[in-house]
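Lab notebook page, bench 4
Experiment: in silico fold of construct C2
Operator: M.H.
Input chain length: 397 residues
Purpose: comparison with the prior construct
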Amino acid sequence: MEMKKTFRWMVGIVALMGAVVVTSCSDDENPEPEPDKSFVVDRDDLKGEITEGEVVLESGTYKLTGALVVKEGAKLVIKAGVKVEATEVAADQHSQVRYIGISRGAQIDVQGTASNPVVFTSQKQTPGAWGGLVLCGAAPINKGETAKSEVGDLDYGGSNVNDNSGSVKYLRIEYSGFAYNSEKEFNGLSLFGVGKGTVIENVQVHEGSDDGFEWFGGTVDAKNLIVTNYAAEVGDDLFDWTEGWNGNGENWYGIRTNNGNRGIEADNNGNNHTATPISNPTIKNLTLIGNGDAGSPEPQAMKLRVGTKAIFENVVLANWATGFDVEHDEGISFVGDGSLKATGVRFVNVGTKAKGKKTDGSAADVSAIFTENANATGAGAGTDVPEWAKGWTVGLD
């Protein structure tokens, strides 16, 4: 009995020594991987392609001197309080435009807070000074199985409804909207086929020269969005969607005092009005404030056309020539069956509440698109600045 115990004890010692030797050899032959050095962060010259791993912008200001593109499999993390400032570029230097692009299969993580937001801005503080933020995902679109983004030439679209392009929280995007030409222009935040796994919350686009937010298909939800346009340079729409966006929106506040375009411009597909998936978001708690009758061709709170559906709940529309403008036979039919509908709408200084036009140009009665509620609160406080927007935004004092 004693010999068996001794034998077992000796075997244990030998096994332990072997493990120590093996572990030691393993450490020598397979050291811990070093940090990725394929992308070098330069605060004064931030640009290029992030092709692998995770790149973190820790604190302070970074000068964006060209396109910064995050490629598939890589991730860009931006800590609270970071400022990314695009340096000045001539309007005709298209190849040098500054923007941040997140490729399909890549991710961004903007970690702003209400007391310490992340800011994307420009050295030249005028609308259209730089590109903005472009997110691309693998969620469904109706332009084809996949497509190329209109700016950045990045792939987007796919079949993954829950695709995850990361998280964007408490971000201000200022002076975006760089234009290649009259037909090709950056927005503040462009969402190309972005999936529902992505988080978009508490984002402001301030003084952009094109749309504040635009969805190109996808399924991503978006909460607590703000667009502010005051500059003499005329912007486009505050919010815009096309190509089959099927997400949810909650707490949107848009205001313009310049002679810009619409509060919302909503499409399904301009080449095929019945292309699927059909654009069909649900937007709850919405305030759109315009500039009265000023603008071109006619200031409209919402232009709903080429086959989009949508459900709006708790809406305040103020200072527009027209509230709801519905175009094309598909949209007229959606008003009829209730799949294009706004409930609980408060009109403030709106000349024409609703008007419709069929595909052949003849007028259509679309008064059924809305029901009224004189006590609607919209984004939270009627035409006033909602509480959730205070503290991390600009231009709302």
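Observations: Confidence is low (pLDDT under 50) at residues 1-35. The first helix runs from residue 2 to 29.
Next step: discuss at group meeting.
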